[in-house]
Amino acid sequence: MDRIPKPDQVVSAASNVAQKVLYGGLADLRPMPRTLIDEGELREVYHYRPVAKVKEQGDPVLLVTPLAAPSICYDLRRGCSVAEHLVTSGRPTYLVEYGEVAFKNRNLGMEHWIEEVVPTAIREVSAHAGGRPVHVVGWSLGGIFSLLTTADGPDLPIASLTVVGSPFDVSLVPLVAPLRPLLNLGLTLGGGKGAITRTYQLMGGAPKPLVKWAFQLSSFQKLVTKPLAVATHLDDADFLAQVEAVDRFTANMIAYPGRTFGQLYHRFVKANALKGGTFELDDRTIDIGSIKVPVLVFAGATDGIAPVAAVKAVTPLLKGSREVRFEIVPGGHLGMLTGRAARGTTWTVLDEWIDQWSTDAQAGGPAETAGASKRPARTAAKTAAKTGAKGKGAKGKGAKGKGAKAKAAGGSTTKAPAPRKPADEAASKDAIGANPSRRYSSQGSRSLAR
Questions:
Q1: Does the structure show a pLDDT above 80 at 236?
Q2: Rounded to an integer, what distance in angstroms lies between the CA atom of residue 97 and that of residue 209?
Q3: Which of 314, 392, 370, 445 lies closest to 56 in space, CA to CA?
Q4: Using CA atoms, how far apart are residues 342 and 42, in angstroms rounded to an integer?
Q5: What distance in Å separates the CA atoms of residue 208 and residue 205, rounded to the nearest whole number?
């Protein structure tokens, strides 16, 4: 291994250091322009404005922010921004965020997000986009809120649901598993309440510094090795820019409302309430199995907050969904969503998924070609691969019998999707997430899991 920097590396490193010292950094942190279209208590719904010379078309996409995390998770920096990617692809793109959580919000519980914030955002986005159904994308706790909202509101105008890094079986999270026996012992300081309960009730929630510390703890190894990593990548401007953007994200963590934090702590962490697929809310039980819309589930190969097994636990619970697809992609909890590798993995799969379940494709129109001239070339290539795969005589499971029906032109979006043929698999087997005939994995996913 060559440990002596080459002359060009020395020049690049010097240039990057100068840029950092003189101008404050290398990352392009300009936010994507957006317009507020709806607001309420801890609810702000934004529409990202279209970019020049790109026409908005197709179904809208709603990005659901998790509690305690800033909405810049979807707009980290130029070049590593989910919002930028969707907008420049011509998709009508929206975001729901919650603003600053104050002491006055301490009595708000999870029902506020499941019954009011997320469903209202979905309806407002659909109305703003001309009544089209919405592709909902939720990261981390935003994914859990989106799942519970979808299960609780079967009448919501949802085209598809994408869940990114959302742990459903917390017993499989290494950071939590060793603590659960202690939590269940009910160690108390008196009055029948544990120390954690008394603390968050006194403070009205989980404050920003605690939330920031918890997020950093989940990547403790990266935190410790960060100075060395930066020193060895001084010539890599893109790497340094990503570090800057992640540092800004971590510094902008938001507090949890007291009651919501209590519910998350007692139900999710201590009781692992989501493991069985049901969740008690007020006077009713929300059943994940009642979700009928197609669901795409992402897990990060190196995610410490939501490990692969903890995320995959939701897939067998989605018994009523039209299609469930599980994909493992590179990256940790934030990196899988908006890291440098996400450009060619997570975002590629998301594009294909939205195209597959778009209104135009399901209605028998030019499937997956709506806006193709404005979309990345990979979508057109995937469509061509599918076209070339037809008529080769390959027989697939479910191609005949068992009541399976092929999609007809003008068919309803409630009909089962057309049977897929093994030829499709052969055409796209090398792409991560590009194999629709495999229910819970892909070739790329399996290679990452090894």
A1: no
A2: 20
A3: 370
A4: 29
A5: 10
- Residue identified by tokens 């076209």 is 387
- The pTM of the full predicted model, rounded to 2 decimals, is 0.72
Work out the burial of residue 23: count CB atoms within 10 Å of its CB; fewer than 13 is exposed, 13-18 middle, 19 or more buried: exposed
**Tens digits of residue pLDDT in 314-326:** 999 999 999 999 9
User: Stretch 263-286: mean pLDDT, rounded?
Assistant: 85
Residue 223 neighbours by CB distance under 10 Å: 12
Q: CB neighbours of 223 closer than 8 A, spacing ≥ 6? A: 216
Task: Say how far residue 294 (Cα) sits from the centre of its chain.
Answer: 15
pLDDT at 202 over 90: no
Both tokens of residue 388? 């070339």
Q: 384 — phi, psi (to 5°)?
A: -65, -40
Contact by Cβ (8 Å): 352, 381: no
Grouping H, G, I as helix, E, B as strand and the rest as coil, residue 411 is coil
Distance CA 269, CA 305 (A): 12
Rounded alpha-carbon distances, angstroms, from residue 249 to 68, 89, 221: 11, 24, 18
Long-range contacts of 428-435 (CB under 8 A, 24+ apart): 428/382, 428/385, 431/348, 431/378, 431/382, 432/327, 432/329, 432/345, 432/348, 432/349, 433/325, 433/327, 433/329, 433/345, 433/348, 433/349, 433/352, 434/348, 434/349, 434/352, 434/382
